[in-house]
Write a structure and sequence with these properties.
The protein is α+β, with helices and mostly antiparallel strands. Helix content is about 35%, strand content about 20%. It has 2 domains: about 110 residues, no CATH class; about 110 residues, no CATH class. It has 6 helices and 9 strands; from the N terminus they run αααββββαβββββαα. The radius of gyration is 24 Å and the shape is elongated.
């Protein structure tokens, strides 16, 4: 993680060095959230581009110098295996991981089927020992076709799921899963959206802002992104204080960093 106070103090130092303005905490927090989200979003197209280099054998695969793996490593702070809970009314699964933000992407889906008895009245129940299966994520159209086919009907060894959303009980943007056959428990490896960073303060005796570490939220990004954070926050700060020099310098530096990382 990147310490938010270190970033804020560096931004203030650069802006104040030439007396080019001041960014108050509220505005800094807004810019910090925007820039963190931009950097987070850049990992996905960058990873896709770098993966093509892997496929063409033009990638350096030396340990610690594989830029595709380095890019992938930056997503680790946002990757969590989450438990999901079943809604019997909607016959679906929703995430049950307090403290985590909105799901961005779903990875491996794992369904667990406990030992079933002959007296189980659920026709989808599988008789036998407990089974933990990787669940294939398919489209809704394929899901409906497969569960109705006698030849391709999913089993506890080969379950399927499709991703959707509901508006009855959950926020519209929440991810919902339909899984067939219905498992006893469900875990999903997910990429979550970054938590908004926040620089918080208490007011000092002279009315100054004093950093409050306990109330603040650091950036979730990898430590290697500190320079990117500072440069891009400065770029937007130049817009706020109406200083084109700050914008030009920060934009030039940001472009240089991006080119260097991808070359």
């Amino acid at each position: 993680m990147v310490n938010i106070n270190a970033v804020y103090q560096t931004v203030l130092y650069i802006l104040n060095k030439e007396q080019r303005g001041y960014i108050p905490p509220a505005e800094f927090n807004s810019l910090a959230q925007l820039v963190q989200y931009e950097i987070f979003n850049s990992y996905f197209p960058d990873g896709n581009q770098l993966n093509r280099q892997n496929q063409n054998n033009t990638q350096n695969d030396t340990e610690f110098f594989n830029i595709f793996e380095n890019n992938r490593y930056k997503l680790y702070p946002f990757e969590h295996e989450s438990n999901w809970q079943y809604d019997s009314v909607e016959d679906c699964w929703s995430i049950n991981s307090p403290g985590l933000s909105t799901v961005r992407l779903l990875g491996v889906i794992t369904s667990t089927y406990n030992n079933k008895s002959q007296t189980n009245t659920d026709p989808r129940a599988q008789i036998g020992p407990t089974i933990t299966s990787i669940t294939q994520n398919v489209s809704k159209n394929d899901y409906e076709k497969l569960i109705r086919s006698k030849l391709t009907a999913p089993t506890s060894q080969y379950p399927i799921a499709f991703q959707t959303s509901l508006t009855n009980n959950q926020p519209e943007e929440d991810v919902i899963l339909k899984v067939y056959p219905k498992p006893d428990s469900l875990k999903v490896n997910c990429i979550f959206e970054p938590v908004p960073p926040s620089w918080q303060f208490i007011t000092g005796g002279l009315g100054q802002y004093v950093y409050n570490a306990s109330g603040s939220v650091n950036f979730q990004l990898d430590g290697s992104e500190m320079s990117n954070l500072i440069i891009n926050i400065l770029k937007y700060a130049g817009v706020i204080i109406n200083d084109p020099t700050v914008i030009e310098v920060a934009a030039s530096e940001a472009q240089g960093v991006e080119v260097n990382e991808k070359s």
